[in-house]
């Protein structure tokens, strides 16, 4: 059935005269020809006709395609087959997608085939089809601006990607999701609908190559509007007291368990690292039916705070009762401020990428360290060699260590994706001579234009 024929069917079902639909749009002969399927019209006129008929473009697409939507059928079929562990059906779907791709040369069928093959690998715990993920990644990366299809493809294949790849394409996904979030029809294609989310795990600042941050407003809306969510776990180790728990809780309307967890080793002991300890805070709205559960949980957790059966020494346990332990917000603020100032001094480099939330995202976020990246490992080794040589001229040595939150700065080489080297700089609290000379070393290397 042609587009004009479908329009005629909708118009007649609504008992709308043709002269009202096509007035100032199509002449009577042109309208008759259009409704017989003998001609088409411009997009502008077509959208005007839909508006006159009080029907959305999404509704028209459903009517035009008829009862069977091939895309939805593919998605629902492979999801059901996967959860039922139906290997034969998954293989049949992959073969069908391959056939449709050969006949139509439409890339989406190649993508369906790749996803289904990866699901087969997942169920079998094999890596026979591991290269299929490259088909999906290559397509997503080459699309500079994502549309609805790319969002659905990304969401339905999310579990196959590394954290680093997700970080790379996240900004494209986020901008399009904000446009589509209120369009209910798109939810039909998602493999993991929000209705089945039981536990949400959040890192306000994530230890990834791009130090990605969470959108607090989006997270709070999700928590408040999700009917099945039972618990939220927030790991705020990288922010410590720079993350406002009180401010976050004031916006929560939903009755869920909220666990706040963090390591207290780095930022909560004045940079001295007394005890390798952690903290867990539990918040829940007042509810008499779970008071007994809360009491028992508290007894259990408090029972772990003893030297017997723990790795802490008596000395370390005593440190937990030191008055400023985990309460010195001023120290955390100074560490964050020094990192922000250090990053700002480097933000205009031409050949070195500076990664810190305060300069990489629209909203200002804190972080206790920053990353420097260059175009390849060869240049990276030249950078680190240059820094070492530059500092040696002034008899300066900067510790190489796996940490952050110290009073003095430290450096560390890390490999986020087991390939590319990244230089982590943790300036600490004190902005002294070593920090200034390190800035000069990095800036002088950038001017070499290697």
TrEMBL record:
<protein>
    <recommendedName>
        <fullName>HTH-type transcriptional regulator Rgg C-terminal domain-containing protein</fullName>
    </recommendedName>
</protein>
<dbReference type="InterPro" id="IPR010057">
    <property type="entry name" value="Transcription_activator_Rgg_C"/>
</dbReference>
<dbReference type="Pfam" id="PF21259">
    <property type="entry name" value="Rgg_C"/>
</dbReference>
<dbReference type="InterPro" id="IPR011990">
    <property type="entry name" value="TPR-like_helical_dom_sf"/>
</dbReference>
<dbReference type="InterPro" id="IPR010982">
    <property type="entry name" value="Lambda_DNA-bd_dom_sf"/>
</dbReference>
<feature type="domain" description="HTH-type transcriptional regulator Rgg C-terminal">
    <location>
        <begin position="99"/>
        <end position="191"/>
    </location>
</feature>
<dbReference type="InterPro" id="IPR053163">
    <property type="entry name" value="HTH-type_regulator_Rgg"/>
</dbReference>
